[in-house]
Write a structure and sequence with these properties.
heterodimer, A: about 240 residues, alpha+beta, Ubiquitin-like (UB roll), Alpha-Beta Plaits, 2 domains, 3-stranded antiparallel β-sheet, 6 helices, globular, B: about 190 residues, two-stranded antiparallel ribbon, 8 helices, binds iron/sulfur cluster, binds FE2/S2 (inorganic) cluster
């Protein structure tokens, strides 16, 4: 196994070749904000919250999908990054319809947490108020596209952990949405095993259990971690 | 100590209520006995819960604005408030994000909203409200306050709880700025 040495915020770090900057930072106890990253599934670089500066590279790089290289010099919390991160979170709020007061995830939402982390007390971008739908055709769950931030965590847990591949990303740009099956109502997708992994993975209130009302959503993230560890490390109890 | 307070120049303080449910004002009243302490420092010159004056005066030091900007009256008042106020605070989610009143924006414009509410859902004598000069016209979109006028301090929350309102106002009484940072001061919903 070959090792790569680099510095993150002037701290020397040595990690295995092939690791990402995010993983290297974690080993050095350096916190980088993330939103689309979810332990146990692949990374896609969708949210841009984990952007970092690397010396001698003149663009910002997403830490979750950038592999470390020898003698890389990484900065994770410069004023420029703080500004871009805040803008990324503001854009996410302005893009959808995030009415926190009446959301199942109010108080237990990773997007709200991100706002606090980046110091966002309002968004400087005009709200778009897009027209989006809600699908409650599934007997147990529902998806409210108004609150979806297109992180694709649901797509990845369903495909990579459950192996059902119910979800995909349809359309592009402002029309982008998370589609079930062949863009059918969720309740008509036979592939869905009703395992609930997407409910646990969703960082916002977009995917929820029916019957949950404001501020009632609970997610069992430990369940996802358990399933992943069970398979990869043969740990069968929790 | 009280004598000193009483001789101090009091801050001219106002609150206004635009398109919101008045919950933020109720939360303000939730500061309970601290309101009595607060009264030593402020002159309430305009407020639906603290003053009978009908005209927004000039030279206001601090104003809490509850609610989004939804109709012609809101628009005129917020412009007047901005022109006559030193520190304007967006007070609560409706002011900061348009929040629940803003959900009508997804229907696209004032007309479909009025038709839906007053014609399609009107059980008896369905008709559109029309009383020019008395019933203010709806704007096409409900806007957060800072999309209309500049805002100095943002206090999100639906409603912000009494502790956060106090933590925001208290520094201003001493001529200091509150730090709107961290979980204690930033809370949407
Ligand atoms: S309940 Fe399970 S199988 Fe169904 S969509 Fe969610 S993750 Fe996929
Ligand atoms: S539904 Fe939830 S998990 Fe899926 S993309 Fe949207 S926000 Fe992410
Ligand atoms: S966590 Fe890296 S882009 Fe979202």
């Amino acid at each position: 196994m070959s090792v790569r040495t680099l510095t993150i915020n002037n701290i020397p770090v040595a990690v295995e070749e092939g690791k990402t900057i995010l993983e290297a930072a974690k080993e050095a106890d350096i916190h980088i904000p993330t939103l689309c990253h979810l332990d146990g599934v692949s990374d896609v670089g969708a949210c841009r919250l984990c952007l970092v500066e690397v010396e001698n590279i003149n663009k910002l790089l997403p830490a979750c999908v950038t592999q470390v290289t020898e003698e890389m010099v990484v900065h994770t919390n410069t004023p420029k990054l703080q500004e871009y991160r805040r803008m990324a979170v503001e854009l996410i709020f302005a893009e959808g319809n995030h009415v926190c007061a009446i959301c199942v995830a109010n108080g237990n939402c990773e997007l709200q947490d991100a706002a606090i982390q980046v110091g966002m007390d309002h968004t400087r971008f005009p709200y778009r108020f897009p027209e989006r739908g809600v699908d409650v055709s599934h007997p147990q769950f529902g998806i409210d596209h108004n609150r979806c931030i297109l992180c694709t965590r649901c797509v990845r847990v369903c495909d990579e952990i459950e192996g059902a591949h119910v979800w995909d990303v349809a359309q592009r740009g402002e029309n982008c949405y998370i589609a079930s099956g062949l863009s059918q109502p969720w309740g008509e997708v036979d592939a869905c095993t009703s395992c609930g992994k997407c409910v646990d993975a969703c960082p916002t209130g977009a995917i929820f259990r029916q019957g949950t009302t404001s501020a009632e959503k609970e997610r069992d993230r430990a369940k996802l971690e358990f399933v992943v560890n069970a398979r990869s490390k043969q740990e069968w109890t929790r | 100590m009280n004598n000193q307070k009483l001789t101090m120049k009091k801050i001219k303080f106002a609150t206004v209520w635009l398109a919101g449910c008045s919950g933020c004002h109720m939360s303000f009243l939730d500061m309970d006995e601290w309101l009595i302490e607060l009264a030593n420092y402020i002159d309430v010159v305009y407020s639906p819960v603290g003053c009978d004056l009908k005209e927004y005066p000039v030279g206001v030091d601090v104003c809490l604005v509850e609610g989004g900007v939804a109709n012609q009256d809101n628009l005129e008042l917020i412009r007047e408030v901005r022109a006559k106020t030193k520190t304007l605070i967006s007070f609560g989610d409706c002011a900061v994000t348009a929040n629940v009143p803003g959900m009508r924006n997804m229907l696209g414009g004032a007309e479909p909203v009025l038709k839906r509410s007053y014609l399609e859902l009107g059980d008896v004598t369905p008709q559109l409200p029309n009383e020019p000069g008395i019933v203010p016209e709806l704007l096409d979109r409900v806007l957060p306050v800072h999309e209309v006028v500049s805002v100095d301090i943002f206090m999100p929350g639906c409603p912000p709880d009494a502790a956060r309102i106090r933590a925001t106002i208290e520094p201003l009484l001493k001529g200091e700025q509150p730090k709107m940072e961290g979980r204690a001061m930033i809370k949407f919903g």
